Every structure is written in structure tokens, then in C-alpha cells.
Amino acid sequence: MNAEQILSQFSATGVQTCFHGRHIEPQIYAGLNGRNWSLKDYEARGGYQALRKILGQDGSAPHPETGVVGFTQDQVIATLKDSALRGRGGAGFPTGLKWSFMPRQFPGQKYLVCNSDEGEPGTCKDRDILLYNPHIVIEGMAIAAFAMGISVGYNYIHGEIFEAYERFEAALEEARAAGLLGNHIMGSHFSFQLHAFHGFGAYICGEETALLESLEGKKGQPRFKPPFPASFGLYGKPTTINNTETFAAVPWIIRNGGQAYLECGKPNNGGTKIFSVSGDVEMPGNYEIPMGTPFSKLLELAGGVRKGRQLKAVIPGGSSSPVLPASIMMNCTMDYDSIAKAGSMLGSGAVIVMDDSRCMVESLKRLSYFYMHESCGQCTPCREGTGWLWRLVDRIERGHGKPADMALLDNVAENIMGRTICALGDAAAMPVRAMIKHFRPEFEHYIEHKTRMAPTANV
Amino acid sequence: MISEIKAVGTAVLPESTLARFAREVAKYPADQAQSAVMACLAIVQQEQGHVSMEAEKAIAEYLGMAPIAVHEVTTFYNMYNQRPVGKFKLNVCTNLPCQLRDGNKALAHLEHKLGITMGDTTADGLFTLQQSECLGACADSPVMLVNDRHMCSFMSNDKLDQLIDGLRSTQGQ
């Protein structure tokens, strides 16, 4: 065997993470098996019907009053607004509203960008979409492009998941050959060119303006906002950026209507959401479930806490979201509003589970190292502050902490929050503040006794 | 054959490489060739093992950029090798979700098996071992990325042994 063949034996198959049959009413992951990612399989699942529908190519009669065949741009955006679809990348901004910000009559070039730079620790949902259902993203992007009058798009894919980039490129080739991308799609007046771009290892490029800089061939350092990408985006042109899963939700919404999507979830939190469950569970993986599903149900789908241990804490929305103790988490439902009310964020939907054997000082130390490593260095509070936070937690963990370090940690975190161009500074500070808020005795114990608190003592 | 090689800047890049560059440049507006710089650097790294200053200059000339602008990109992104690495670069994720599922143990196991510490290359030049940040495969932990393009999932110690032994066995062929 050559090296390629050997390496391929260790590739993910998706069986554990995606084709486990433990989703609830899935839309994006429905019917996938790892072998049916191609165009003909996607079409057999009803793929590209939504694009046909809006372009008036599905055989339906013209609108009785307007005479329009297919959808108008306003109809697509209104449908998205009805659906209550909110951005799946982390911020949860209403998608229909974001699309309505795009200046549709702008005379020059406009761009559509998909953010597949999935680097938020805990998150691997977009990887499985791109690997096993890439055409759903292409169709969603084409519909978005139609709604906003955009003719060129890029999908920025996390460099570490290179196989997903290659798969997406292959899907693009299929779509172009079938006339589903390119000039005059399905013989209509709508043209849309879509290309794939890969990153090469920079967490910060998941931030939308850093992503744009990177896409322009530069260091990925975030831009000041305003101006927002809708007015000054890629190459200085109006640009709309959405997450992979957001685009992937769009075809179902167009086929079934905004109201039907909303009813899948709960008010203000439409549809299904994919949660990447990692850490101390029996069956880590991606789980697509309706918004508003109890956390306890999601934990059950993932096989419960590993080795029969007790749940200690959960980071519910990727490493940047504040940690929540088990007692709070078990009363949450998995949707933007419930998690926000509990004091954290649904974020990217990356649920990092920690059992009662875990030391929070050790956990925070690893997260703080990550933010120090990935700070782009542009803003002083983040560049200096993330390193300071890590050195403090590292010092405590090595048994050299001082009682005053608790206040200092809080003070440094406080002085990063809201004082940087992008959210990475906040993302570094929030885990620190939440860990101290909910698990202060563990840190104090570590400082006083120079070793961790006995497991389970603080549950 | 000399006819297949085109001199660009201070380096020579084969026509096949330039053809790959051209496919990337074609994705962007005519005045935005710089957008292809990350892909061009990744192509050079795949073909040559690392990104040399000469390669940066060649790419700069090809894309109409200042060499320093290319160098800024090489040095900003984690995955570009700024110096030669082993034939197989092993990046093991140890970020929190992986730390909770033996990512650090996988790294320690490889250090022991290869007889090197992270950051180093084996004396035979076969393996470079690195700790890495989130690879985006958290549910597959322990995970390791090999040569930037091959994600290896659920890497128990047994599977790590199989992988290393298997890659070593390819070398006599």
C-alpha cells in the first residue's frame, strides 16, 4: 500500500457522527449515508426543487394576480423572514432581515460568501454537511444569490478539513455541468458563479471581516464595523455572509414554506439545528434536532454522560460561550432564547460536555491557551490580554497562584471585553468570567492548596 | 524536460504547478489575482514540502504582489511550513474537546513511539510531530491531520501504531 491508501483507512466515515439515525426530524442530514452526496442522489431526495420553484421551472402556474412565474426576490426574503431562521454560525442574526439589508438595486458587482471556516472548538457540523450533502449548500446559496441579485459567490472552507473543500469542488463541477450554476441557470435570466476557497489554519478567519480579508489574499485581521459587509464587503463591494448551515436550511424553507419551518422549532427560533456534541458523552457526534428540544434529550441522544458519570458542566455553544453548570443546563432547551436566558449563548451549537471528574482550572487553561495562540495581534487588549489570562491560569494550575489572582483574572477579562475590533477578545474573556462565576471555589482551592479540588466535591 | 519548465522570478516552477495556479486565479476577478495566494502557497507546500522564500517570490511575481505581502500570508496562517518538515507532518489536536477525549494522550503516545517531543522531526526525516489547535473534527477525537490534507479520526493508541508502522513500511518500496 502507498501512503495515501494507508491514510485513507483512518478517514472519518460519518457513521458515528452523522449516519447514526439519532436525529429528530432532520432536514439537512435526512437520508444521508456517505455514498449519496452526488448530484443525482441529491436530486432524488428532492434537491434543486426549491431553486426550480423560485425560478418558475417546476411546472407550476403563474401567480393568478401578478402573472409572475416562480418567486420574486421579495417573496424569497419574506419567506425567510416568516421562517424565523437565524444565523447558524454563532450570532443568531435573523437571516431574512440580513438579506433585506443588501442594496438590491446597487449598480455594481455584489458578492455572496459562505462562511465554512468552522474552527470554533467543539464544532464539526458544517464538515458533515459539506462532505455528505454539499449540493444543499450550493442550492441554498443560489437561492440567496437570486433573492439579493448577486451573481458571484465564494465558499470559504476551513483549511484543516481539506477533504470537505475537495468534495465541495467536486459538487460545484457537477452543478456547473448540469446547468445549475453558471450563466442563465435552467434557461432563466438568473446567472450565478460559485467558487470554493480554502483557509489554511487561522481561527480568526471565522470572523466575517477577517474572512473577507483572507479571501482577498491578505492576513486575516478583522475590519472595523461599520461599514458593515452589506455596504463594504469583499473587494469593497456589498457582500452578504452566512454560515454553511444557514444556507443549507434554505431549500427546505422554500419547498415547505416559512411557517412550516417555524413550526419545526419554537417562536423566534425556527427550524432544526445541528448540535455537535463533544467531550464526556458516550456517543459524540452531530445531532440535528428541532430548536427548543430539551438539553436532557440531546444528552440522551448522545448516549448520556460517559461511563455513567455525573454531568458537571456544559459549554453550550462552542468554546467562546460561557460555561453553564449541570443544574442550570438540565433546565434549558436548545434554542437561542433559552440558552441566552441562562446566561450563555447557543453560538455555533457546539455542546462541550464535562463530567464530574473534570478540573475547571485545567479546562480553562487549555481554552485560554487557544485564544492567546489565535489572537491576530491587531488590538492591544486582546493581544496582551489573552496572553495575560493564560499566564495567570497556567500559574494557578502549576501551583504558583496567589489569592489576588482571582481579582486579577476578572480585571483583565473585564478590560478586554468590548475593547477590541472583533469578538475574539470577548470570546477569550467570557469563558474566564463564567468559569469564575460558576466554579470559583475550584480556583480558590487550587490557589490555596496548589492542587485541584477532589473530583465531585464541587458538583 | 527543460521545455516543461518555465522560469518565474528567482525560482523555477513546473508548468504543471503553474496550471494549478491558473485554475485558482480564474476563480477571482481579473484585478484580484491576489485572492489566489493562499491556494498557491498550499499548492507549493504540497509539492515541495514547505514554502521557501524563493517560492514566495515566484508566487508574488505570478500574482503581481509584493513579496512581503506573500510572506505576511505565509507567516500569519498556522498550516504553512516556513521551513522543511518531515515527509509526514502529524498535527494532533489538543484543544478542549479533544483534551476531554484523549487528544493529549495521543500526542504523548506519538512522542513516545517516535522518540521525539512535539515540534521535532525524527532523525530519519520521516515524521514531524506538532500540537495543533481545533481541526474541526471534535466529535472524532482523538484526531490528527497528516500533511495538511488527510484527517485521521478516532486515533486510539492502537490505530496510531498502525498508522505510523504503515507509513514507515511505505519507505522501503
Task: Summarize the structure in short.
The complex is a heterodimer of chains A (459) and B (173). Chain A is α/β, with parallel strands linked by helices and 459 residues long.
Molecular structure report:
The complex is a heterodimer of chains A (459) and B (173). With 459 residues, chain A is of the alpha/beta class. Chain A has helices at 3-8, 39-44, 49-54, 73-83, 95-100, 125-132, 134-148, 162-177, 208-215, 244-256, 258-264, 295-301, 326-329, 336-341, 360-374, 380-397, 405-416, 424-449, and strands at residues 111-116, 152-157, 193-198, 239-243, 272-279, 285-290, 293-294, 311-315, 324-325, 333-334, 350-355. Chain A has a five-stranded mixed beta sheet, with helices on both faces. In chain A, strands 3-2-1-4 form a four-stranded parallel beta sheet, sandwiched between helices. Chain A has a two-stranded antiparallel sheet with strand order 7-10. In chain A, strand 5 (272-279) and strand 6 (285-290) form a beta hairpin. In chain A, helix 10 (244-256) packs across helix 11 (258-264). The longest helix of chain A has 26 residues, at 424-449. The model of chain A has no long low-confidence stretch (mean pLDDT 95). Chain B has 173 residues and is α+β, with helices and mostly antiparallel strands. Chain B folds into two domains: 2-76, Arc Repressor Mutant, subunit A (Orthogonal Bundle); 88-172, Glutaredoxin, CATH 3.40.30. Chain B contains seven helices and six strands. In chain B, strands 4-3-5-6 form a four-stranded mixed beta sheet, covered by helices on one side. A two-stranded antiparallel ribbon of chain B has the order 1-2. Chain B is elongated. In chain B, 48% of the residues are buried. Mean pLDDT of chain B is 93; it is low at 1-8. Chains A and B meet through helix 1, strand 3, strand 5, strand 11 and helix 15 of A and helix 2, helix 4, helix 5, strand 6 and helix 7 of B.
